[in-house]
Amino acid sequence: MANLAPILLVEDNPRDLELTLAALSKCQLANEIVIARDGAEALDYLYQRGPHADRAEGDPAVVLLDLKLPKVDGLEVLETVKTDAARRQIPVVMLTSSREERDLVKSYELGVNAFVIKPVDFNAFFEAIQDLGMFWAILNEPPPRGANRA
Amino acid sequence: METDVDLDACAREPIRIPGGIQPHGALMVVDPDRLDMLQASENLQDFTGLANTPGARLADTALAPLAADLAAWTGGDEPSFLRTLQIGDLTFQVTAHRARQGLIVEFEDPPASEDETLEVLYPRLRRFVDRLESAGDVKTVAELTVRQMRALTGFNRVMLYSFDAEGAGTVLAEDRDEALPSYLDLRFPASDIPPQARELYRLNRLRLIPNASYVPSPMVPPMSPVDGQPLDMSFAALRSVSPIHLEYMRNMGTLSSMSVSILVDGALWGLISLHHAQPKRLNAQVRTACDFLGQIVSLQIGARERAARGARRIALKQKESELLASLSQEAAFQEGLVANGETWLGLVDADGAALVSEEHLITFGSTPSHPELTELALWLGRREVGEVFATDSLAEHWPQSEAFAADASGLLAISISQIHPSYIMWFRQEVVRTVNWAGAPTKPMTNQERLTPRQSFALWKERVRQRSLPWTDVEIDSARDFRNAVVNFVLRRAEERAALTEQLRRTNQELESFSYSISHDLRAPFRHVVGYSELLRDRLEDIDDKSKHYLDSISEAALSAGRLVDDLLNFSQLGRTSLSPARIDMKKLVAEVRRSTEQDTLERQMEWKVGDLPPAYGDPAMIRQVMFNLLDNAVKYTKGRTPALIEVEGREDADRTTYTIRDNGVGFDMKYAGKLFGVFQRLHRAEDFEGTGIGLALVKRIVDRHNGVVSLDSELNKGTVVTFSLPKSVPQSQGHG
Q1: Which residues of B touch A125 (CB under 8 A)?
Q2: What is the pTM of this model?
Q3: Which domains does chain B have, with CATH numbers?
Q4: Does residue A16 form part of some domain?
C-alpha cells in the first residue's frame, strides 16, 4: 500500500477541513492526504514548485477541490489541470457548498470528474466522502503513470 | 342641376370684354399718340352730342381742349385723369386711363350737388380714419366701414363680407334702411363669384351698376382697330356687367349696386357691397372717396388680422404652457388631459378631443364613439399622415367617417408615437350645425328662386356639408408645438422607465449574488454544527439520555435550518433557471420517487395504487421535484393511518396531461386552501409534521412555469386530492429573471 498515490485535499475553511479529514480517517484509507489551503498552493503541489518543489514524483490519486478558494479559486484550478494535456487525467472532484446551477454547469464544461454538494447532514457528508475516497483513491485505476506525458 | 350649368356658364363669361357699356355714360377709345378716335360706344352722340367718327382727330372736334389735356397727361406720370368738361351747354365729368388698345376716355354726368365734391368729402374721411384707428377688431372695423359707406353714398344697404380660404363668403357687417332686407351673417359659396370676376375685383377695386335694368350700349366698331380684338374694359368704370349678375341683382330687389374691393397682402380679402332698391348714380368724386376709403379699410383690416394672429398665437401658447404645467404634475400626462379638458380643447379651439394609444382611450367634449376613434387611429396610422394632420372635411379623405361627420367633420391629429398608431385628436363639428342665417325663410324654395341669397345660402350649406370651420395656421402650429412637448414628455417617461428597468436588473443581479453567497456561506455553519455534534457523540462513551437528547436536538435544529436554506435556494433558483423540456416517462418517475420514500415508511403499512400514467412533457428535473413533493406530502400526511392509502393516476387529453395524487391523510380545512401555495405557509404544527413550508409553493411555481394548472381539494381528516395538469407543448420560456 506504500505506493498508493496521495489524495490532494484543497480546502480553505478550517472547520470543513477538520470535518473532511475526520470523514476520510473514518474510511481508514491508507493514502497520504496532502492539504492545500488555497488554489495557488494546490497548483504549486500539482506542478511541483514553490514549497512543493522537492516533493516525491507523481500525481495525486484524486483532488478533492473546494469551489470557493482564496487567491486562485477552484474553477481556475480545475481549468488549469483539465486544459493541461499532461495532467488532465488526474481525477478532480469538486466539493462545494454551492447549489448554484452555473457552478455545476461550468465545472462539467471544464471536465470535472464528479461534483459533490456537501450535504448538511453529517452522516450523508461522511458517506459521500467515504464513497469518493474509496472510488477515486482505491477502486479507480489511474492511467499508467506518465502515459500522457509528452 | 340646372343651377350648376348656369354657374358654370357664369364662370366662363368673358366679363373683361363684354362688347358694350352701361349707358349712364359714354366711352371712347383714343390713340395715345395721334389722339384720334379708335372706337366709341354707340350712345356717344346721344350722350355728348359728339358724332362717333372713328379715325377723327380729337383736336379737330369739339374735344380739342380735352385733346390738349390728354396730351399733357400722357406725357406725365399722373396715374389717373379726371376733368370737368364743357361741351356746348353740357357739363361732363371725364375720366381716362391707359389700356392695351388705347386710352379709354369715359364721359359721365357731373356731381349733382356741392356736397359731393372732394373738398366736402375730405374732412369726413379724415374723421372716419381717426375712428378706425381706435377700433379694436376686424368686426368693429367692418361695422364702422359700412356705416361710413352708407353715409357717404346714401345707398339703402351696405354690407361688408369676407372670403375664406376656399372663397366662400360671410356677411360680417351691414348697415341699411328699411328698403332692403338684412343679409347679416349670410354665407354664400365660392361659386357665387366666379374666379375671373374675383380677379377683376382684385385688379379694379371699384365697380358701379347704377341701373340693373339697363340696355348695354355696344362698341362701334365692335373690334378694336389696333388688334382686331374686342375692347378689354377691365378698368373701365362703365364696363357692362354679366347678365347673370344683373339677374341676381333683380332677384335681390336691388336695381343699383356698387362694390369696393378689400385687398390684404395683394389678395382679395372681401368686398364692401352697396345696394339700392332704385337706380342710383354716383359721381366720380364720391367713387374716388369710396375707393380711398376701401384702401384705408384694407390696410386697417390687414393690420388687425396680423395683430389678431399674433395675439391668438400668444393666447394659444399660454394655454399650451398652462396645460403642460399641469400635465407635468401628473404621473401620466393622459390623466392631466381630461382634468384640464377645457384647456385641451382651447389649444386649437375644438369641440371635442381624444387621445388614442395602445393603453389609453380618453375623450373630452363631443367626439366619435370609442370604436370609431380606434378605427380612426388605425386609419391615420395606415395613411402615414406624419406628425400633424389637419382637415376640415374628414369625410373627403375617409368616406367611412361620414357616420360621425356631425361631431367630427374637422380633424386635427398629432402623432405621439413612432411605433404605435397613437394620436391626440381634436374635432370640430360640422359647420352647418353651428351657423344660422336669420334671413333664410323656412318655407321651401321654388324654381323661380334660383340665383337668390336664399339659394346661395342653401347651396353654401350643401357645399359645407361634412365640413367644419377650417383650422387656422396658428391653430395647426399650436397643435404642432403641443406635440413636441408631449413627445418630449413621453420620451422622458420612457427614459425614466428604462432607468428603472436598469435599476431593477441591477437589484436582481445583486439578489442573485446574494443568494449565491447564501448558498455557499450560510449552509457551511449548519454543516459544521451537525458535523461537530456527530464527532462529539462518537467520542462520548456511555452518554446519558439527557446529553443524547441535547446532542440530537442540536443536530436536528441545524439540519432543519440547512434544509430550509436548501429549499429557499431551490425556490429562488426556479425563477432563474431555464426550462429544458423533454418527454418524461411518468411511470418510471413515480416508481423512482415512490422508492425514495420507502426508506421512511418501512414501519408503516402503505397501500399504493398506481393507475395509468401517460407521459408528460416538461423539464424532467422540475417535474420530478413536483412529483416528489406531492408524494412526499402524501406519505407525510398519512402518518398514523393504517393503512395509509396513496393513489396516483393520470389522464391524457388533446392538449394536456393531468395527474392526480389522492391520499387518506389528515387533510385540511378548505378555507385555508388559498394559503397553501404560498411560501412558508403551514397548516400543521412543526412537531406533528416536519417540513419547511415550501413544498407546495415550489410545486405551484414549477407548474406555473410550465403554463400548467394545479389545484387542491381536501377534507379535514378524510384526505387530500392534488391535481396538476401540464400542456403538451411548453413554451421555451426563459427564466423570469
Answers
A1: 527, 530-531
A2: 0.54
A3: 25-108 (3.30.450.20), 313-496 (3.30.450.270), 522-576 (no CATH), 582-727 (3.30.565.10)
A4: yes
User: Is B38 exposed, middle or buried (CB count within 10 Å of its CB: 0-12, 13-18, 19+)?
Assistant: buried
- Domain of residue A62: give its range: 7-139
Most A CBs within 10 A among B521, B527, B528, B560, hence the mutation to make, goes to B527
**Residues of chain A positioned with their CB less than 8 A from the CB of B562:** 120-121
B531–A125: do the CB atoms touch at under 8 Å? yes
Phi then psi for B726, rounded to 5 degrees?
Answer: -125, 135
**Is B573 within 8 Å of A99 when comparing Cβ atoms?**
yes
Question: What is the pLDDT, as a whole number, of residue B609?
Answer: 92
For B622-641, write each residue's pLDDT tens digit.
898 899 989 988 998 888 88
H/E element, B515 = helix B473-521
State how beta strands B267-276 and A114-117 pair. Answer: unpaired
Q: How confident is the model at residue A137 (pLDDT cuts 50, 70, 90)?
A: low
What is the residue-averaged pLDDT of chain A? 82
Closest-CA residue of B relative to A103 is B516
Q: Give the C-alpha separation, B32 to B71, whole Å.
A: 8
- Give B600 or B528, the one with higher predicted confidence: B528
Look at A16 and B528 and tell me if their CB atoms are within 8 Å.
yes
- The enclosing domain of A67 has a CATH number of 3.40.50.2300
Identify the weakest region by mean pLDDT among B95-99, B125-129, B386-390, B575-579: B575-579
Instruction: Give the nearest partner residue to B531 out of A19, A99, A100, using CB atoms.
Output: A19
Q: Is the pLDDT of residue B390 over 80?
A: yes
Those residues of chain B whose CB sits closer than 8 Å to some CB in chain A are 516, 519-521, 523-524, 526-528, 530-535, 555, 558-559, 562-563, 566, 569-570, 573, 577
CA distances (Å), B10 to each of A31, B202, B229, B643, in order? Answer: 121, 18, 21, 109
C-beta separation of B190 from B227 below 8 A:
no
Q: Do B559 and A120 touch (CB under 8 A)?
A: yes
- The angle at the Cα of B453, spanning B450 to B456, to the nearest 5 degrees, equals 70
Quick check: B562 and A16 CB within 8 A?
no
